[in-house]
User: Fold these one by one.
Assistant:
Number 1:
Amino acid sequence: MSNIILQAKSINKQFGAVKVCQNFNLEIEKNSLHALIGPNGAGKTTALNLLTGLIKPTSGSISLNGNDITKKSVNVRSQLGLARVFQITSLFNEFSVRENLMLAAGAHQKTGYRFWTNVNRDKRLLEVADEFLEKVGLNQRSSILAGNLSHGEQRQLEMGMALATRPDILLLDEPMAGLGPGGSAKLSELILELKHKMTILLVEHDTHAVFSLADTVSVMVHGEVIATNTPEVIKNNQRVQEAYLGGVSGGAEC
Amino acid sequence: MLLFIEQLFNGLQLGVMLFLMSAGLTLVFGIMQVINLAHGSFYMIGAFVAATVTLHSGSFLLGMVAGLSVAGIIGMIVEMTILRQLYNRNHLDQVLATFGLIFFFNELTRIIWGRQPLFMDIPSWLDGTVEIFAGIEYPLYRLAIIFVGFIVALFLYLLFSRTRLGMQIRAGATNRDIVAALGVNIKLLYTLVFGLGVMLAALAGVMAGPILAVEVGMGESILILTFVVIIIGGIGSVKGAFAGALLVGMVDTLGRAYLPTILSLLLSSELGETLSAPIASMSIYMMMALILAFKPNGLFPIQSRLDS
């Protein structure tokens, strides 16, 4: 069991009378690329919000690296190694690309007596920022304001910020959404590069990208995980096809 | 001319006091989105504690340290117990709750210190006047206020532009959820920002102690001007608070000093004198209306506020 890094056990979440998650179970293996797919409204983003702590479950438990984190706040989970890239663009537009990365890096370093250090000369921040500028391919764009980047570049920067917190597990919420073919390809490349170096949970609507990238795929329908298996098996699973594709023969999205 | 320069310094001194008040208020509004009407109460608490400690110890500096610490601690307790409940409420709830806090603190002050105003002496080492230009003597204490104000402005500038904490505060003003997701403890950050704002208000109160009477309700009279300042400057912007405070300080002071003369020259001297007092007290509001007509979000609008 020590190979499981993130585990959600029989999670239920209700908003009033509306059940958005029921008996949600998910186990993510260390250093795997695990995808969570499902039709619109299946509760994928809610599931991510539960995992990151933005909302708390009505019942059930979540553990990270064997520690119960069900009641831990968002920032504590981040400190414990959980990073998230949001579905909505989540950059600080008035900050430069480098400053965005420095902010992410700084959130995970103990400052102590250095809190008055000039951030623009703080090697511990600059080195981390430069490392991830390189990694996400934005080193030519470091001093541009984040708000002026193209949509695809903003996604790259968001990935960089999540990585700069040096997480054990990275949760990606529909990273391909709204990207053109060029941007999608670039991002897939980046995800492939990270594959098996860290744990990634990829929540995606675009099944195309998912089946080519993931080791394991979980399918979520009506707030519940109905199947977890390799992409090959999932593709041919009758129940999944019915639920996910609404029974449409041929499965245009696959 | 000599009088004019002296009035300029008076305007600067009022402006600096307003800056100390408005920097905290604008930070709290810009970052936590809370309208804190009780900001003036911390100005009052700072002044009362400093006056009492100064009286008993004989040391103005000790009084200042005590005023800032007591106000800062009370402020952080208020943030943790009351304001935290208000972050997700609408502005009307916030206004009502913090308005209630004004009554609470005013009454508490009356219970502890009574109804009589306290008087603080200017410390002997800041008493007297200095010659700032040939032939112009200016009170040393008022110069010290201006000096402290500029030091605080510089400190805030460095804090926000240079430090990690400042970076996190600026980012937190844009989106708290994302800052939290990066691993920053937002609750602690809010408490620190609120404490900082309160201590700046208390500093203004302590500095005002020797030139104004330390009395219950002193916070409310400066609070109105403070709101004018942050609206002119652009809500949430410390830079805007600085510009707005100096502008309001200058216009108010110079208006009161020179409007009577100007109006008497333009109109009959009798009519001019009758009109000048009300017009002088209206001058900053007229300026605010004028500025808002051209820049509806103030002089230095905060970007995120425009987006949302």
Number 2:
Amino acid sequence: MKEFLLNILQNETLVYTLMAIIPLIWVIPFALFAVWWERKISAHMQDRLGPMRTGWHGSVQTIADILKLILKEDIVPTAADSTLFKLAPYIVFGGAYAAYAVIPFSAAFTGSEINIGLFYFISISSVVVVGLLMAGWASNNKFSLYGALRSAAQIVSYEIPVALALLTVVMVAGTFDLQAINHAQSGMFWHWFVFQKFPFLFFALIIYFTASLAEVNRTPFDIPEAESELVGGYHTEYSGMRFALLFLSEYSNMFAVSAIATTLFFGGWNSPFGDVLGGPWWGAFWFLTKGMTFIFVQMWLRWTLPRLRVDQLMYVGWKVLIPFSFVLIVGVGVWMLAVR
Amino acid sequence: METFDIIFYLFALITVGSACIVVFSKNIVYAAFSLLFTFFGVAGLYVLLQADFLAVTQVLVYVGGILTLLLFGVMLTNKVISVDMKTGTLHAVPAMILAAVVFGSLAGLFYATWSGVTAPASSIISTARPIGEMLMTGYALPFEVASVILLVAMIGAAFMARRPKKL
């Protein structure tokens, strides 16, 4: 992809700018339609119809919503710290979008081919935490501040099981490079890491997926924005485009963690049938399909499980997920030493 | 000026500019938040030095861990207890002497060992594997000692944070 663009455009700066923008072509339509899917899925799970008026089965409802958000007045509360209040959504979205630099959409396209892609992904999510704290603090509202503090405490705790569960895959693949991890899973679908070293990597997937739900503040771990207790959490005071930006980063985060689950455990852009239906374009198709499956599971869980309490959340993180992920690491290590 | 130089000066500007805000801002929350840009800028400089693993570790440890904890501390004291925390100037003369001594020795060291700019190598070499191997072989003892110290600190903090048992 990079070489191809370089051949056409003959300008390095322009090519790198384009490479940085390409994931946005997926992220923005995804976020727009994911809101609609979320509403439709929740409706059908509760035996309702959901949005039906705008377009076919309400399919352009979110486009109408985003138009409304663009036209809305951008309100900054008088008592808020206006500099930080205005800056925070950009930092949150910057952190969320930075993760897309290493996500391999296809064999031919990764934003940046660094060989520590996975490690970068784990660390860059912490920038989002600082943005959330900034949004919550600057709003000068107790609900926002509580939401931000809860969110930060949750993300910091759940970063550890995420990193440990992903480490098992790194041990098996022997690299942090996400493209190399994809190549290691090529072939028929039983070569995918979720079926390797059974059942260790399967449980690593479960731990990773559970902890990643907490990292992106999804139910059952959505206490940072629990509507019934905190109004809207850290985005209570936001309106108009700034609110839309916070929402966009939340949805792009959802897809980012699904993309990592896809890449590490389900073969990324590999076709399930070996070389049949392979190639870069089919690769992008498989990658996005698998990613969207995880998005569906996230939405499904949201309308299935009740919300956890703060202390239950900490219990699950520190006393269940972390010890079990250590067991998985030791298990995979022993297996790799025994079967060499 | 090449692209490399432009990016270097950009990151240097981010680092030094935000560090100045950290030092000179009267508002302690602003100081804490501008640390984000300082850490980020330093990570960018590491990337330019081709220390990719170090750069990512910098973001993970300083932004993800230290800065978040710092912000927690600042926010819990500043807003929840509603005390205005401001930084002021105290002991100006001793501070200036100390700063001058530190700056002088650093500058002296820099000019004594400075040997001009070397062009960056054209291909990026992976640093993750050599660092891992060194931590498991030659530097295993310091690595383990550091982890034991951290464990002791954690146990100590948990012990102090506990409510005293009622007798």
Number 3:
Amino acid sequence: MTINAMPLVVGALCVMAIFYRYYHGFIAAKVVALDDSRKTPAYTMYDGQNYYPTSRWVLFGHHFAAITGAGPLIGPVLAAQFGVLPGYLWILVGVVLAGAVHDFIIFFASVRHGGKSLAEIARIQISPLSGIVASIAILFILVVALAGLGLVVVNALSESSWGTFTIACTIPIALFMGLYMYRFRRGRIAEGTIIGVILLILAVIFGKDIAHSSLATYFTFPKPKITLFILIYGFVASVLPVWMLLCPRDYLSSFMKIGTIAFLAIGIIIVHPELKMPHITEYIYGGGPIIPGSLFPFAFITIACGAISGFHSLVASGTSPKMVSKESDIRVIGFGAMLIEGFIAILALVAACSLFPGDYFAINVSPQVFETLGLNTVNLDQLSKEVGENLVGRTGGAVSLAVGMAQIFTSIPGMRHLMDYWYHFAIMFEALFILTTIDTGTRVARFMIQEFGGKIYKPFERVDHLPSAIISSALISCGWGYFVFTGSISTIWPMFGTANQLLAGIALCVGTTFIINIGKARYAWVTIIPMAFVMATTLSASWLNITDNFLPLAKRDGFAIQGYVNSLLTAVMMICAVIILIDSFRTWYKVVFVEKKEVRISKEEVVSE
Amino acid sequence: MIYCTNIAVILPIGLFKMFQLAKNKKSSVIIVRESDGTGGCICCSGGMGEFAKKDHSYGKIRKIAEECGRLHREITDRFRDEEVKIIQIEPRAYFYLMPKVLKDVLKFNSSILSTIRTIFFWYQVPVVIVNGKPIGTGRVPTIGEVIKELEHSKANSVN
């Protein structure tokens, strides 16, 4: 039985609106008691540069752009293996009860801490140990995140001359834009961006001619070669000055993101596709071909960003709290931006589920595995013909999302014959974000390594020290590159989801401690419940990953190192989360029981005196 | 049908609101400058957050941000919130910037050339848009220049 996408999309909007009005209103009024008479850091620490009051809608746009991208698009596509309902319900329930609350509480805590970062808040609210552990956890999580996203690009570009040509073009285009905006015509950002976007669209258009010419062989690579190129790209980009590649690429991504997501939303409203995926598939009990493991806990870690994302806590405790002009704005920005991110995740799920199950699985698993599933493809040959590429066994989620998006776009009147262009546009759109992520992520991880290294050898922490920059960039690139080389989407994506959700669990732990410390322990359940759920799912998923996936993998010939490294990394992240959890319990116990008792005793002493 | 209804209802309300807001003669200063951090969280769209502060290659962007900060402070020192609304924004915030500059252009009767320049972002960043007119493009203007333009556009709008 098929179901139309529209009731799901409208239903999701209604649920989000109701929760925003009532539940989030309750949290804003009762739990944290937003107080507009309190000056925010934008006033108390005003410098006009980092700290300055900003209009609610400007900041909303800034915050929304910061938290939205490739993450919420890929997870729901992979989780579609469990059917439409599990992913849909988790996104909806997760975003209103966990994700939005997580973003809001950390945002609020950061505002009350003068715009401090998550690690700083952890250090102040829990203990210095938790601050250090949070930093280490972030570093490990970063490596896994880069590997997870890197693998998505590798799988999308392997054996695709059109895709590789388009993405390869983004590098000289970004370099040209960088030179144009910062050297030839300084400050002409609008001009540079318009030229960049036009060149990018031309790269998509001419990619077809390249794919059908003798030049195609120069752009057709197997996975190992694509991995190597992306690894080299990550290394070089993280050492280059930001104006040369990072800034222009970021401008391109920003405009592409808003445009494409808006177009997808409009497309789904106009086309309102039928969802061909069953409501629930047999894989909810485990043994799924894309994500091994049962619905609980694996569906909850596969969809990370769309429901709850730990990385948002880094944004919510970054620039946004320094610019918010009054506390009541945090409600719109903190809750609102995350709700829209959840909505985007639902759009991605709709795009994936609009494919026939046979086609979806044929794209997302290898041909050998697909043969064992007992499914038949329906439209795949036709789709492959229309997009001009073999779609069989293109794992990673990006390809099926691109096919789903292209299908929706081509259903819009007048777009019927543009399937191949829309498909490659969607691939370019996804890869553009991910390469920006690889660039910045490698750079951030490099700074963290340099920070740690500086404790042993002082000059190492200087970010302008070239040998240190090269060594630390190489270390990080090889770190995530190793996982991309050796892993598959079945091993890497659950690790990425686990890492992201563990960070969310840590942030919710910090948020709970903050709520207890401000004397609102009776309302601490608003963060304790999502924290308990997120910690339970991620810790059990981590454990199952180690026992059911990685350790058995280590016993296979030639996979020993990979199995043990994956196990070790997962174990380190688990240990970090457990340390912070125990440290938080200790703080909560102290605040709720010991300090209360001390206050009561001192009151009794005063009365007796 | 539903889309036509939406357009028929939302568009006039938006235009009406824009003209209504245009009646409010509070001056506007929009400081457009680049940020010394990329937008985004790492899992989604790539972002360096606080780590951007460590990157020396942001030096130039940061220097301009400091100058914009100085101008921001000088304006808030001289004018009350009710007199001048200051917005500091990144060039990528196109969707907010566009209606805002349109409103300012309508409010203060800017010249055609400056209207075109403002609406089509035909200027160098950093730029300070005072009551719909870009001044000091490619550099951060002095407070004197901003005050002069504020007075000039006020006088124009009265006439």
